[in-house]
Every structure is written in C-alpha cells, then in structure tokens.
Design a protein that fits this description.
Largest sheet of chain A: 7 strands, parallel
Shape of chain A: globular
Number of domains of chain A: 2
Number of strands of chain B: 10
Distance between the termini of chain B: 50 Å
Structural class of chain A: alpha/beta
Largest sheet of chain B: 4 strands, parallel
Order of helices and strands of chain A: EEEHEHEHEHHEEHEHHHHEEHEEHEHHH
Number of helices of chain A: 15
Radius of gyration of chain A: 20 Å
Structural class of chain B: alpha/beta
Number of helices of chain B: 9
Strand content of chain A: 15-25%
Oligomer: heterodimer
Order of helices and strands of chain B: EEEHHEHEHEEHEHEEHHH
Helix content of chain B: 25-40%
Mean pLDDT of chain A: 95
Number of strands of chain A: 14
Distance between the termini of chain A: 42 Å
CATH topology of the largest domain in chain B: Rossmann fold
Chain lengths: 394, 270
C-alpha cells in the first residue's frame, strides 16, 4: 500500500498514564445543568479562551438507573488525553465526588473541583473558576509537543447522514487509513451497534478469537432486543429518512457500507459504551448510532482523533476530540464547504481510487493530530450528549 | 393589574421572547449563535435524531409546546436536513396554530456561514413583522414546582384563586428542570420553584422562575443570596412577588440565565 507513513511523524502530549494527546485543553466541566451557562462564560471571558473548552448538558444530579453510564462518561471525558487539566464545577454532592474519584483513579493530572455550595453563589464560583484556570495554565503550558509513536493514535470511526455513496467512497477509504494505523500498532474503534446490524457476521468472522466474534454477534442482538421491549422495530427508524433521501434502501445496505470504515483488519476486542481499550488493535464499541452520544462515548474512552464520514453533511464536533469530516460525494462537499475537511466523492467521480483517498485520509489524520484545525474546530463545535438507557435493563 | 404582552396568536404572555428552536442536536450550536445575535432564547439538547418509537411524537410535541407558549412571540426552527424528526414537520405543527414561525435548514443553506446569515435575517424579519403589543393580562396562570410547605402554599393558592389567578402544581421529580416540562405544557406564565434540598435554584429560559430556599437545606442556606426568597415568607408577599415578576421584574435565575430546558424522553437512542 502506497501510504506515506515513512515520511510522517506524529507529535503529541505525553500524559502520565502513558496515553498521548493531540490537543492540550483546559476543560471546564459542569456537573449540573444549572452550571452550563457559568462554564460557557468562563470559556468565553478568560484570556486563555483559545485553549479552554467546555460543554453543556441536561443532567441535574439525578442518580437513577443510568447513573453508572453517566458517571463513567463524565469521569472518562474529563481525563481524555487531549485534556491537560480539568476543572469540575458542581453543586457539592456525593455523586459528584464519585465522578471525581473515578477520574483521579485513572489519570494523574491537574483536576480541580469547585462547588456552588463552597462558593456560596454563582458570581463567586465563576470568579473561582477563572482563577483556577489561571492557576493551572502554566502547568498545562509546560507540557510540550514531542514526537509520538504510532501507538499514540486512538482513532474513532464514525459516520452520520449516510447516503448511497458512503459504502463505496468515504467508508472504504477510511477503512484503508484505519487498516494502516492498526498495522502500525495504533488503536482504531468502530462503533454504532445498530448500524452494523445485518453485517455483524462479516465482522465476527474477522475476530482474533471465537470469544470476540461471539461478543460482536451478542452486542448487536442485545441492542436490538433492548429497543424491542415495547414492540418497536428498529427497521422502522433505520435507514433514517435522510438516509433514504440519500439513496439507501435498507438497514442491511446501510450496515454493509458503515462496516467498511473498519477496513479489513482483525478485531482485537469488543468494548462496552465509554470503556477504554487496553491494548492496541481494532475494536468494536457498543454505542448508539446517534452521532453525539457516540462521539461523547469515544471521548470518554481515550479516543484522540475521530474521522466522521457524511453523505448529507453535518457540522458537529467534540469539545475534546478533533473530528475530521469526510464527504462521500462531491456535490455535498461543494455545497457545504465549511462543514467538510476532505472529499472522498472523487472516487465516484472516477478521478481518484479508494487507495489514493485512503492515503489522503491517513495524511489528514496525521496533520490534524499534529495541530491542523478541523472544520468543526474552526466552527467552535463542542456538542456533548449523555447517553441514557431510560430503564432498559439490557 | 398585570401589564402583559399580546404575543400574536399565542395569546397574552408576561414576557415576549423569540425562540430559536433547534429541531435536532446538530443545529443547537448554530441556534446559540443566532440567539446571541438577535437577543432571542434557545437551549442545547440532544434530541431529534436517532430517536425511536414514542419519542418521535413525544419530542415533536414538546418542541411544539415550547413554541406555543404565551411568553413566546415568534419561532425560528433550525434543522440540519437528514434527521429523524424532520424540521419542516415540526415547523408545520407549530405553524398550524402560530403563523409567526419560520424554518431554516443547514443542508440547504450553503453551509454554516450561510445558515447563520439566513437565520439571523429570518429572526429579525419575524421580530419586525410580529412586534408584540402591551395589553392587560386578566387570567395569570402560576406554576408551582417542588415541595412547598403546605400551610404557606395552601394559603397562597387560596388567595391567588380569589384574585382570579389559576395555579398548577408539578412535583413528580426531585429535579426542578424535569418538573418544568409539565408546567411548560400547562402554559403557566410564571413559576414558583421550591427546589429539593440537594438542588440549586434553577430557572427556565422562557418562563420566569421565582425560587424559594428551604430552611432545612444546607445547600440552600449556603446559597441564600441566589434565591428570590428564604422560606420565611408569607403567602401575600409571594403573591405580590408573582405580580411584580409578571409585570417585568427579572427573577434571580432569569437575570443570570440559570437553567436549561430538559426534553422528556422514554426510549434509548439508536
């Protein structure tokens, strides 16, 4: 394969838990929806705004049947390797302290926890968060970019707004890049469980062990069962109306195309939502196809770059992961230029091969890892969603 | 007497907000940019795509309830284009009753810069074409959230009803932001919130929320200045406050923009 990896070199920020980051953010993470506005204000008004990131969400402290999932996402997100320091802002509850403990247990880094209860008011808390950003700033800035091994890469594979081109242009080209990273000793994660439905047997056949193969079959069956409890048929919602307008006819057709993002490498393992891979290789993670629930789960799993293929065009990004958008068709890439980083529609146009675009995606991933900003980053996109099961026990 | 706003087809409200309604998570970021530029309200959420079963109709109905509230003067629906819950259908459901509604879709706007430009122009045109007028509000509807002390609230409800006001209660959840969903649907003009002991004062962008601290809560006592009242108030003081807020005085949460809209859901995303 004619990929330029010999000339390429990753550079990143080495973290104390051995992970590598390709960004070096200070994250202001609110732990209650009443604090969303405050986090946003700090990000906007602090002089170091360029390296501050923040999120908003709808959680208001409830500890219900989704607590384990929510807690894991907050603590995992806070210690994503692209984050140099995290400032949690909360109300002052035992649930928040549990999130803190889990974050601290998995990575040694500057973590601050400031509460409304201790501050005694919103203005005072905002002032404390501003001061805290200033305090950690020199520590964060003291960590410098350095040459990183290929194993530093934890690549997330995503698609959203798929069309009939996805399975023949952007997805197989991303598969070429993913295979190359896996071959070089990096980690790559395919996800979106309901979007491999109908293709799971093909992925299972690529598992390194029979147990991993069975696990791929099982997560798909489990997900489908978990939404069938009220007599809902997934095939009524998939492919979505946007997919159908884009020329996709069945869920199976969509799945066969979606699975192409993972190339041809063998599967090392299956991960639960927001769980971190422990060794290098290709994984499948059990996530919703919902773009942002998936992206947030990736962020909580140490993913440090995501490539997101799209047929219809979507602007979203993550507060902590650079997200590269690859268009599946030239028409959309031309119509929505400020959403797209790379056009794989040239494959359908007949002007480039899958291998050539795959090589281009590989080089784009390296360039973005080394600091090039994505369209979503330039647009300031920081979407963040909590994935809930709403009482489903599966 | 309450000096309200005739919010066009939505009736008489105590505020006159324009709502920038992202019909899918993918347009929430654009919605915030638009709202900041035209001084409208909006909220971030994670719905509209990857939803299934009862949530498709449920999310749509809640978006329509928000856009139909009497404190809203007009609505701009922002969609992406390829999502499950189609923005044009959300818009049609709203427009059926409230013609002061427009729709902008990102995938047909030449990208984010184009979508921002056309959304801002659309929002401004609506504000100009459908300017609200001041008018007297005769029947004020007051929402009550949480767990108030019974003696206080019984007396309050009695005197509110004597004055000709309606009251609606909601306390199914410990989290105020979840109870607010019922109160939005009830079209109440003002909310009085008695947050659970472990909850901070929380507001809502479209309805002014008067927050009352609990004397039993260490959190509330630590944050007492962030509440509109301590618990030692009388029913008549509370009613007077409701009228003052209905006449335009900002509540503490309103002034600081504390609190977001939480959309009720039933089934996991796919």
């Amino acid at each position: 394969m004619n990929l330029q990896s010999n000339d390429s070199q990753l550079t990143g920020f080495l973290r104390k838990n051995g992970r590598w980051g390709f960004r070096n953010y200070i994250l202001v993470l609110p732990l209650h929806n009443a604090l969303n506005q405050l986090a946003d204000q700090v990000r906007v008004h602090h002089p170091a705004t360029a390296i501050i990131t923040s999120v908003a969400h709808d959680w208001s402290g409830e500890v219900d049947s989704d607590w384990a999932r929510i807690s894991r996402v907050f603590s995992g997100f806070a210690i994503n390797p692209n984050v140099g320091a995290t400032i949690f802002i909360g109300i002052g509850t035992p649930a928040e302290e549990e999130i803190l403990r889990n974050a601290r247990a998995h990575r040694e880094m500057p973590i601050t926890y400031l509460t409304l209860k201790d501050a005694g008011g919103f203005e005072r808390l905002e002032q404390q968060v501003m001061e805290s950003v200033s305090e950690v700033l020199p520590l964060v800035a003291s960590v410098k970019r350095e040459p990183a091994p290929w194993s530093a890469m934890v690549l997330g594979l995503e698609c959203g707004g798929s069309d009939a081109y996805s399975g023949i242009t952007a997805n197989p080209a991303l598969g070429v890049a993913s295979d190359k990273f896996v071959e070089l000793g990096a980690t790559s994660i395919l996800a979106e469980t309901m979007e491999i439905l109908g293709a799971e047997h093909l992925l299972a056949a690529r598992a390194k062990t029979p147990e991993v193969g069975q696990a791929i079959i099982d997560v798909v069956a489990r997900y489908e069962q978990s939404i069938s409890y009220e007599g809902i048929d997934i095939r009524g919602a998939q492919p979505s109306r946007g997919n159908i307008e884009g020329g996709l006819t069945t869920l199976e057709e969509k799945s066969l195309g979606a699975a192409k993002k993972a190339g041809n490498a063998p599967f090392t393992g299956v991960l639960d939502y927001a769980h971190t891979p422990t060794e290098a290789g290709l994984y499948f993670m059990d996530t919703p196809g919902h773009d942002i629930e998936q992206l947030t789960g990736f962020a909580a799993s140490d993913v440090n770059i995501t490539v997101f293929t799209t047929g219809r065009g979507t602007p979203t990004g993550s507060a902590v992961i650079p997200t590269i958008k690859v268009a599946t068709n030239t028409e959309m890439a031309t119509a929505l230029p400020d959403l797209i980083d790379l056009n794989a529609g040239t494959i359908a146009d007949g002007t480039q091969t899958v291998l050539e675009v795959g090589a281009q995606i590989f080089e784009e991933i390296v360039a973005v890892a080394n600091g090039k900003l994505t369209a979503a980053e330039m647009g300031g996109h920081r979407e963040f969603n909590l994935s809930r099961l709403y009482g489903s026990t599966l | 007497m309450i000096n309200g706003y005739l919010n066009n087809s939505r009736g008489i409200g105590v505020r006159s907000h324009q709502l920038i309604l992202p019909s899918v998570v993918c347009s929430t970021h654009l919605a915030k940019k638009v709202a900041d530029q035209v001084d409208a309200i909006t909220f971030s959420h994670q719905h509209g795509c990857g939803i299934i079963g009862p949530d498709v109709a449920g999310v749509n109905q809640y978006f329509v309830a928000l856009a139909s509230h009497p404190n809203i003067q007009s609505t701009v629906v922002l969609g992406l284009g390829c999502e499950t819950l189609q923005g044009n259908e959300v818009t049609e459901s709203i427009t059926a009753h409230h013609p002061e509604t427009e729709y902008v879709v990102i995938q047909e706007s030449a990208g984010m810069a184009g979508a921002l430009e056309s959304s801002v122009a659309t929002a401004r045109a609506l504000q100009e074409n459908f300017a609200p007028q001041h008018t007297e509000l005769k029947t004020l509807t007051i929402g009550i959230e949480g767990f108030p002390e019974s003696a206080l609230i019984n007396e309050f409800m009695r005197s509110a009803e004597e004055t000709g006001y309606k009251t609606v209660l909601s306390n199914a959840s410990k989290e105020p932001s979840k109870n607010f969903a019922d109160l939005v649907r009830s079209k109440c003009h003002v909310i009085i919130s008695f947050p659970d002991a472990n909850q901070p004062p929380t507001g809502l962008p479209l309805i002014p929320v008067i927050t009352i601290a609990s004397s039993q809560s260490m959190l509330h006592q630590a944050l007492i200045s962030e509440f509109d009242f301590s618990s030692s108030l009388t029913a008549s003081e509370l009613l007077q406050k409701v009228v003052t807020v209905a006449n335009g005085e900002l509540t503490k949460c309103e002034a600081k923009k504390i609190g977001d809209i939480v959309v009720p859901r039933m089934v996991r995303s796919v």
